[in-house]
């Protein structure tokens, strides 16, 4: 496999990567076409609900918009006359900025609503809110504490609902991660991603999607911080179905061994501040350093969805040439744009299909 070739000689890999980036700029001409996929009218609560072809279509549209708008300097008012309600129970730099600027860049009107503006289930029920917003805007992005809030919104709304983060899943982050890795490595199939950290919503989203893209997952979590059992069971089923590797361990070095991508996230999420001292103790030894990377593939890179704390990854890795965290943050914009365009229009990408 290509990943084995890379592990034989990092110098050869660098040469191949340079040639590839010069010739294709992240796009592969002549790759097999995707079967026709339309996502118009769909919601996106979790990538568990999306097929491999549908996830690939989302990434293709995202890469296409980035190519045409950022590099081609095109103006594409694909969402002219449309509006999005952005409900935020939890604050976020990247989710707000990417959605608000992305929707506006596509010609639409974003409406930002905090818990001061719209207190779901308190001053108005989720059911009533969903029905009201369905008559006032075209799509809703909701960043909430409980995933059940999204499910109720989706059940009652007649417009698409996007999960901007819940306690269970964070699909829009994982789309950005995949686009970033696709741009860097040229393709996703055969890559090994190692998660070293908490069994949280980001990890759950990787587990519900990685096997569908031919990506292997190696997961290290401390005892007591494992992913949700039902998510593990579904991920095991997906791995068997798609022939990928899924390893769960408590040893960060075991997870990092022979990996292409090292990933972590905050150990103390919003709402968990009271547990901070205990969590920092339980996650001792989980900080990603160059020593962690020493057992990974020679081509290893680092991802973090941000905001980052020193205990999760040291400066040497975080600000190194192996870190993709800032391109990853930018790709939050292009992938949420790709998702919104896909759910609201019949847009067909104009650039060659990405190689998966």
UniProtKB/TrEMBL annotation:
InterPro entries: Asp/Orn_carbamoyltranf_P-bd, Asp/Orn_carbamoylTrfase, Asp/Orn_carbamoylTrfase_sf, Asp_carbamoyltransf_Asp/Orn-bd, Orn/put_carbamltrans. One of its GO terms (biological process) is urea cycle. Residues 42-183 form the Aspartate/ornithine carbamoyltransferase carbamoyl-P binding domain. It is found in: Mitochondrion matrix. Homotrimer. Belongs to the aspartate/ornithine carbamoyltransferase superfamily. OTCase family. This is ornithine carbamoyltransferase.
